[in-house]
């Protein structure tokens, strides 16, 4: 799809992939609405990119999701793309009890929030001549990394959901994309001191260019870099990933 003069709402735009994608899409001549839960980071983003809109939203909060969707449609009626990018990755020890609140935060951030936000906006998007829902999953949706088990499960579920979403929307103007990133150096997992120094990291600029290319070429399920191998070989790579 054309990637200029679109109106694009992106969650989790205050760091990492979301920050770089928001910046790139802004540079390409789109109206970007950057969302996040860190007001200071949002202010920095809008100062660095005049014209970029920002909105505070903790995606784990249902009321904030409803408010974000209503505000975005009211202020940006041309809104035609949603990028469900916000995500967290937690290490969980499955040999003992897990705090339910901790589980619920990961489940809500990575799975329930994108599903709910999509549902809040899908009616509006169907009124646009061209529209897109873009879900950011992970190569780990296809080959789990056992130390972050619920993360992998939420991404596998979001992959499954994206298939159904795409099927149900096939006769509408809304295209459903799934972007499947490889390991990219960001803050993901840093709250648990996740050490990604052994990961083969894809440079952020290469990753962002690959995402833009996938969207422009209408690659609806886009495995980027090594994530494409995980997507194709799935559990066949489990032992290799979990040495
Ligand atoms: N980096 C990778 O290797 C990799 C690989 C595969 C998939 N992904 C996916 O890519 C997406 C972006 O992750 P990233 O790597 O860029 O990590 P990141 O640097 O940690 O960025 C995650 C973003 O999500 C936001 N976020 C988290 N919880 C939120 C909440 N409750 N409400 C609103 N925003 C929230 C964060 O905001 P705060 O700064 O406020 O926490 C941050 O802006 C995620 O869906 C992740 O699963 C990343």
UniProtKB/TrEMBL annotation:
InterPro entries: KR_dom (IPR057326), NAD(P)-bd_dom_sf (IPR036291), Sc_DH/Rdtase_CS (IPR020904), SDR_fam (IPR002347). Keywords: Oxidoreductase. Belongs to the short-chain dehydrogenases/reductases (SDR) family. This is SDR family oxidoreductase. The keyword Cell division does not apply. It comes from the Bacteria. The keyword Glycosyltransferase does not apply. Residues 6-180 form the Ketoreductase domain.
